[in-house]
Design goal:
The structure is a homodimer.
Chain A: H1 4-32, H2 36-67, H3 71-103, H4 112-137, H5 143-168, H6 172-202
Helix pairs in contact in A: 1-2, 1-3, 1-4, 2-3, 4-5
Organism (chains A, B): Kutzneria albida DSM 43870
Protein name (chains A, B): PhoU domain-containing protein
Subcellular location (chains A, B): Cytoplasm
Chain lengths: 207, 207
């Protein structure tokens, strides 16, 4: 990534990482306080992440069309396209946390006894993003091992949260499972719609 | 998509769609029966979807590197890369449903009163994919409106499922919310790791 276009894209990628890191931090604050106003702000600000993604996408497509990149340059551009998808989704997930905060109104959605775990999950999530930011800045380091550690920590915290929920009410397992299954089908449908959107892109339909 | 490479990629995309459609159908059967053996099979078979994604990815990258496509051809290839990501994720979600089926052992995870809604969600999901398959086969149709209808139906069913869960136990709202929040953080972390993987791809590290 040496030419000015690539420098711009690289800066925008780092910008997206900073935004999604901040978004999860603010969403968590909004969830635990609870702070509906802050939650609304996180939801509104997610549009900035989406717009950045759009901008990077267009720059990369233009570069693919005009520069005929090969080898490392081509890999760079394709990797950038893929990263944008993930980062946009991370922004969406922070927005979902903020939306959950709003569901409780002025009452906290997360019971006091579980706030500590949720706070830790948010801290691990943000630490992970800061590590990713380091690896995007200086590729080729030993990032993966560090990331794996955080990712394991996250899985462990998720299990701890579920166990705490189960302890509070033994009927919870089924409720959680059925609720998650509901989300799986919904997400599956969303992805199917996303595929169809690409068909329109493919056919050159303006959206 | 006229040259032989593109025909192959197109056939493989249709193949992925057929596989993820079947996977969700089988996962639902495994969940509702319950049928742990079928669930295991769905989980194992997800590797085929992942392998197809890898194959399409490599073909598209090779085409980008050697054919220097522009305009419609470039859009085709980029759209294909994006579709693969969504389809792989759909396969993952079908696998998650199968994994949930296994959690109950020989007892059904979904209570009898909620099986009807889950069955409908699965039917809508599969119908959606069959419509997407039609649009990938014949781009430029009025697919989006049909898809929107199914997507709305899915959101409606999800709401119905949550309402039914709430009716059964008024304390459920908080359990569902906290459990979903847990999932949001976990997914956020997964996406962060996926970004880091692209950094390795970018640096040319073999995985």
């Amino acid at each position: 990534m040496r030419d000015p276009m690539c420098d711009t894209v690289h800066q925008e990628l780092i910008g997206m990482l900073q935004l999604v890191e901040a978004a999860m931090g603010r969403a968590t604050t909004a969830l635990l306080a609870p702070d509906p106003e802050l939650a609304e702000q996180v939801i509104t600000d997610d549009a900035v992440v989406d717009a950045l993604r759009q901008e990077i996408d267009e720059r990369v497509l233009a570069a693919l069309a005009t520069q005929h990149p090969v080898a490392a340059d081509l890999r760079n551009l394709v990797a950038t396209l893929r990263m944008c998808v993930e980062l946009e989704r991370m922004g969406d997930l922070a927005r979902h946390v903020a939306e959950t905060a709003l569901r409780g109104g002025d009452l906290p959605v997360v019971p006091p006894g579980l706030q500590g775990i949720v706070r830790q999950m948010s801290a691990v999530a943000q630490h992970l993003v800061s590590e990713v930011r380091d690896c995007v800045g200086y590729p080729g380091g030993h990032s993966e091992r560090l990331l794996d550690h955080d990712d394991d920590e996250m899985d462990h915290l998720r299990l701890e949260l579920d166990t705490a929920l189960l302890r509070a009410n033994p009927g919870t397992r089924s409720i959680m499972d059925v609720s998650l299954v509901g989300r799986y089908y919904e997400r599956y449908a969303d992805h199917a719609v996303a595929v169809a959107r690409q068909v329109d892109f493919l056919a050159g339909v303006t959206r």
